[in-house]
Amino acid sequence: VVVDEAELEEEPGPDLVAPYLQDETTTVIVEESDEAAAELQPAGRFSGWPIGNWIGLTMILVGIGLAVFAVFVLQETGDEPAGEEPANEEIRTVATGVTPDATHARWIGQQRSVTLSDGTLVLVYPTADSLNLVEDGATSGATWEEPHVLDEVAGAKSLSVDVDSKDRLHVVYSDGVSVNYVRLKNKPEQWKPSRIIQVDDDTTSLHVDVAWDEQNQTAHVVWVQMSDAGEAPAWAALTNQDGIHLRQEGSLTDPGQDVPVLVSLAADGRASLVVTYRRGDQTTGWSSRFTAGPGDDGTWEFSEEEDLPIDAFVGAADVVYDRQRTAHLVLRDSDAINLSYFRKTAGDPWSEGEIAFDARRVEDLDFPTLSYNAGEENLYLFFQTEEYDPAGEVSYLVKSLESTAWQGPFDITTPADAPEGALYPTAPDRVSVQTIVFWTRTGETYEIDSAPVRAP
Question: What is the pTM of this model?
Fold first, then answer.
């Protein structure tokens, strides 16, 4: 601030101060000098001016200077106005020109991405004419390569994928009229599909899931079996011995016509497998069946059905295993509008449910998906919310396996990142280093985006 010397000869009253006020919040304090200070007045042109006036003017100018500096700092740092969220600078575009539901996990947390032995993350997504794979080059999601396009595998409307120790991908998919399985071999600069095995030739359900059993070299597949009596969850084992082939299959419950069936599964990486489902003949509740592996004759025997302690309509679910062989399950209670969390160890029943997140509206809670980080020993829970109605956004909760409390929710996207909506979150069932979440971004063209997430 430059002050005309002529103005300083006047008393520092309102007329002098007014030109230097920055806004209505500026406070001006002028102190009167005392008699003792008068003897210390400097000689010269302004020696007749009381020292109290000097002090007051100094305080005014310092205050104005600080106000100008604060405005400058806010402008330089780019702080957002109150009430607006800054953009997430770690969001990356994975693929463009995709279908509107490219990452839709069908309310069962279908796995669309896996990590290879060298740390490369692979995302699989369908189009009408092909199956597509995108790799990040082992950059923890920082960069993404051009998609590998497999024209040999076409028509998938819904899919789930898992990986084995040889980096082969096991994919189960529904084309809307049948359920099919294909294995993809990892070759230099390409992915080579095996022959396609049809698991069920007469079902329109898009609820399919797969889990790889490394110990028994078996891909476990679940889907919804349809008949005149209604819908039932079904399971099949495709063994890798003597070439991949269908080894065993069967229904897990009686069929029902009351509600559509949902079914999801997880394998612990050794021999155990848990299948969880909503029965077609029950409008409330959730059930599961467990197997510790094949018997001496090579066939799998499942335990008796176990009902979970929840008496509500369950609209979505996901289940994963940790490396201690504990299963973690999340259910969306569509009556109370919350996410209920359960866990199970081999030989023990499911735990009593605890609320991981309680929503205000049904629109604020959809498409839950779990991801276990073995390096952190943390469990991440992603979901879609319409908190920023009408556009959907992606949020998450996180908990340590040693803690009973969930932290969050935390926003991954906001209208600053996806003004027209971020939908259908999906994440790997298990990672060792960096947890990555994917979603479909809406707009003039649809794209798949991703972002890393961390525990606070």
Answer: 0.81
